[in-house]
């Protein structure tokens, strides 16, 4: 079973995403902020990390930078979610180290399709 970390500070959106992913038999760990996400990344191995861009304590970009600086974790696949969907912002997010980008708002089924595509690359 594939294990995913979801870091999203909006409770309702986080619950919706977790329910959607768990309905498809993914194991999902949750973090309400970047700092907790980083702690979970240090403790567990994930097949995919889904990060919100704007989170309290530590942004998704800061989490990416720390993950990419860690030799043991820099291989992890990262999908960034953001309402900042201008092309220049998307390019910056990818340059910082995200592997994939998805603009908010999105449908849960579109996210599920994206996650399936990413995890099928293995």
From TrEMBL:
Domain of life: Bacteria
InterPro entries: Bact_response_regulator, CheY-like_superfamily, Sig_transdc_resp-reg_receiver
Molecular function via GO: DNA binding
Domain Response regulatory: 3-119
GO BP, sorted A to Z: phosphorelay signal transduction system
Residues the record lists as 4-aspartylphosphate modifications: 52
Alphabetized Pfam families for the sequence: Response_reg (PF00072)
Coiled-coil stretches noted in the UniProt entry, renumbered to this chain: none
Keywords recorded for this protein, A-Z: DNA-binding, Phosphoprotein, Transcription, Transcription regulation, Two-component regulatory system
Signal sequence interval, chain numbering: none
UniProt name for this protein: Response regulator
């Amino acid at each position: 079973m594939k294990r995913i970390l979801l870091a999203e500070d909006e409770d309702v959106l986080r619950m919706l995403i977790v329910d959607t992913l768990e309905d498809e038999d993914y194991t999902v760990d949750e973090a309400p902020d970047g700092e907790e996400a980083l702690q979970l990344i240090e403790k567990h191995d994930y097949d995919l990390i889904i990060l919100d861009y704007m989170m309290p304590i530590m942004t998704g970009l800061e989490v990416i930078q720390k993950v990419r600086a860690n030799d043991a974790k820099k291989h992890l696949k990262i999908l960034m979610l953001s309402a900042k969907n201008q092309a220049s912002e998307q390019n910056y997010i990818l340059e910082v180290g995200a592997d994939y980008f998805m603009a908010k708002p999105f449908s849960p089924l579109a996210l599920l399709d994206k996650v399936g595509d990413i995890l099928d690359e293995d």
